[in-house]
Design goal:
single chain, mainly alpha, 5 helices, 2 strands
Length: 169
């Protein structure tokens, strides 16, 4: 919240100082739109799915085996010799632990990869915003605003710049 006030104070200072000398050119970017409409974000999501879906399916299949073994234990457990029932119980417990470990590892690796792709997306977006700002000779670009006239929204220009760079729509 403090950084918001610092940015707001800096923006107001720039606007009031610039108003005396010249007009200030301000633009606003809607990051939610960029994230939902840019091909960079879509490709990152597709890459995550392609990378992690096979392992997710493998875990699902393993969990089906666990469920089948549990069902067998419940269905036939009383009819089995005690040693066989205990062995099957230990096997089910071991499979459940392994499944939990597999899920934990998958979750950790997915989150790490998601953060890497998000960092790359942010870097690409910032570069496109900077290019649009320099080309349009903007004095200030805001990423979020409580209110902005449609005329100062440069989101479409940023999306076009990202597309031109190979990362846009």
């Amino acid at each position: 919240m403090r950084s918001f006030f610092v940015v707001l104070t800096a923006a107001l200072t720039l606007v009031t100082a610039g108003a005396a000398a010249q007009s200030v050119k301000v633009g606003v970017v809607n990051l939610a739109r960029i994230e939902s409409q840019s091909a960079t974000a879509k490709r990152a999501n597709e890459a995550l799915i392609a990378e992690f879906e096979p392992r997710n399916k493998q875990i699902e299949e393993f969990q089906k085996k666990i469920a089948a073994a549990q069902a067998r234990l419940e269905r036939e457990g009383e009819k089995m010799p005690l040693s066989e029932r205990q062995a099957l119980g230990r096997e089910v417990s071991g499979m459940m632990r392994k499944s939990d470990q597999m899920l934990g590892a998958l979750k950790d690796e997915y989150e790490l990869r998601r953060r890497e792709l998000a960092a790359r997306f942010i870097e690409d977006t910032r570069a496109a915003i900077k290019a649009v700002a320099e080309a349009g000779k903007f004095d200030l670009i805001l990423q979020e605003a409580a209110f902005a006239r449609p005329g100062i929204d440069i989101t479409d220009q940023v999306l076009k710049e990202m597309a031109k760079r190979g990362g846009g729509r």
